[in-house]
Amino acid sequence: MAAGGGPAPDDGPLVVVARLGGAHGLHGELRAQPTGPTLAVLPIGSSMLATLPGGHRRNVVLRARRPTARGAILAFEGVLTREDAGALAGATVAVPEAALPELADEDGYYVRDLVGCRVVAGGRDLGEIRDVHTGPSNDALEVVGDGDTVLIPFTHDAIREVDLAGRRVEVRPDLLGG
Question: Residue 33 pairs with which residues in a beta bridge?
Fold first, then answer.
């Protein structure tokens, strides 16, 4: 970790774990929207890099976190007033890739690993994964190809193989019809 509490350039690639909203209360807390499950398991004292909308970066250290129905409330060391928190509003916060927890599920994948993979069905190239949408019963892969966008259920029934090393996801050939 870099001096000043945040990740250093040699800590490896950074992964965004939350987007900061506005100030919450009077004592330096901020509303946050997690980008995945990582924020909830990062230990207090974790170093992060906050990147503001204009590109300015600032090292921050997690002082407190509490979940809410819509995300989380975060507090950082040295951010003690509503004005301090307001200065971070709109930022993304990232941690080194090495800080990400191991996936508990052997069939689990990080969204960042799936985005950019080619999707094929029976040898036919359907396009590239651009996003993964979380749904109430299953996630869906947003696949863009030939100007069309399709959502493919990310389920055992629909997916035949995920080859992250080859950057390829194979779906059932009959899934999308002709």
Answer: 19
This prediction's pTM = 0.64
pLDDT per residue rounded down to tens, the chain (178 residues): 443 455 554 566 888 889 999 999 999 999 999 887 788 888 999 999 999 998 999 999 999 999 998 889 999 999 999 999 999 999 999 998 887 777 767 777 878 788 899 999 988 999 999 988 877 788 899 999 888 899 999 999 999 999 999 999 999 998 876 5
My answer on whether 94 and 124 are in the same domain is: no
Q: What angle do CA 136, 140, 141 make, to 5 degrees?
A: 160
Cβ count within 10 A of residue 85: 25
Range of the domain at 90: 9-99
- Residue 3 domain-assigned (yes or no): no
Rounded to whole angstroms, how far apart are CA atoms 127 and 118?
6
Quick one: which H or E segment has residue 82?
Answer: helix 82-86
